[in-house]
Design a protein that fits this description.
Layout: H1 2-23, H2 26-29, E1 42-47, H3 53-68, E2 72-77, H4 82-95, E3 99-102, H5 111-119, E4 124-127, E5 139-141, H6 145-159, E6 178-182, H7 190-208, E7 212-213, H8 221-224, H9 231-245, E8 254-256, H10 260-272, E9 285-286, H11 293-296
Parallel strand pairs: 1-2, 1-3, 3-4, 4-5, 6-7, 6-8, 8-9
Helix pairs in contact: 1-3, 6-7, 9-10
Length: 297
């Protein structure tokens, strides 16, 4: 999903920058030098981490798109450490960037930086993840996270044979109840709640009619959340689920995983527990997102 959206993200960020510089609006937009040429403006881009391929690709895409338009770019990655990202943004403000694009680690943790940007007349664009607890955000560039949850849940149901490739009910759906487990985003990302709601709204009717079941009964986002999308955390939780709920020979048919790092951890746990190396030899259906090479290869 995100791989297909990278050009959209870059175009939207560039368009927002152009709109900010040309028309004004928002907390700091009216103080941008509207007569400045792109080569006279510097954009600070704060990305959350280099650990995951998708953020490396997104950072490079935004940087390349802006530089092609003539803007100077200061790109920083924070290694999923909130104090590091806070310091990086502070430094960008102090150095006099003209616009900030922020993909936050924790959208609620940058209030003082957003206040400082507003005081300096620096427009702020929230990228992918919503910046919360502050009015000092000029633009928000994202996609429909609720619909992503819907599509991932439908993809799981397709993989289980409940829906066809058009996400319509099949005539030959399995007769047995299908066991699934659910994973969620990191709760400090506002997108987590939107994705989860879309997925649960889609899966709930199938839970209610007995088509699918969650043997762990962990169907609340607080139970399913994976802090910082860590592969190791997802692997450990999957191992615990297998030990607690599937050591009696019960079948596990599928796992909802909202991001590729989680998918890899889940698949590692399943393979280590003898569930097979591929779907053909018994590995349950596991969803993902980002099309990271390590996951799809």
């Amino acid at each position: 999903m995100r791989t297909a959206s990278k050009m959209m993200f870059t175009a939207a960020a560039v368009s927002a920058l152009a709109l900010t510089a040309c028309e004004g609006g928002g907390a700091g937009a009216d103080e941008v030098d509207t007569d400045a040429a792109p080569e006279d403006l510097t954009v600070g881009v704060a990305m959350p981490t280099q650990t995951y391929e998708r953020w490396l690709n997104d950072g490079a895409a935004v940087e390349d798109g802006l530089e092609e338009m003539g803007y100077n770019v200061e790109l920083q990655y924070a290694d999923d450490d909130i104090p590091t990202q806070s310091q990086q943004i502070d430094q960008m403000i102090t150095s006099g960037v003209d616009v900030l694009i922020v993909a936050s680690i924790d959208g609620s943790a940058l209030t003082s930086q957003l206040d400082a940007a507003e005081a300096e007349g620096i427009p702020v664009i929230a990228y992918d993840r919503l910046l919360t607890n502050s009015e000092n955000v000029d633009f928000y560039v994202t996609f429909d996270n609720y619909e992503v949850g819907v599509n991932q849940a439908n993809s799981l149901l397709y993989g289980l044979g409940v829906l066809d490739e058009s996400f319509e009910p099949t005539d030959d759906a399995p007769d047995e109840t299908l066991n699934v487990e659910l994973f969620a985003y990191s709760l400090d990302d506002n997108n987590a709640h939107l994705f989860w709601q879309g997925a649960i709204d889609t899966l709930e009717p199938y839970m209610e009619d007995g088509t699918i079941d969650v043997p762990s009964e962990q169907t609340d986002i607080n139970q399913a959340a994976t802090q910082r999308w860590e592969q190791e955390t997802a692997q450990q939780r999957m191992e615990n689920l297998l030990t607690t709920h599937y050591n009696d020979g019960s079948e596990l048919h599928g796992v909802l995983a909202p991001a590729d790092p989680l998918s890899r951890g889940i698949i590692t746990a399943l393979r280590n527990d003898g569930w097979g190396d591929s779907i053909e030899d018994g590995l349950p259906i596991v969803t993902g997102q980002d099309a990271e090479i390590a996951t799809v290869s």
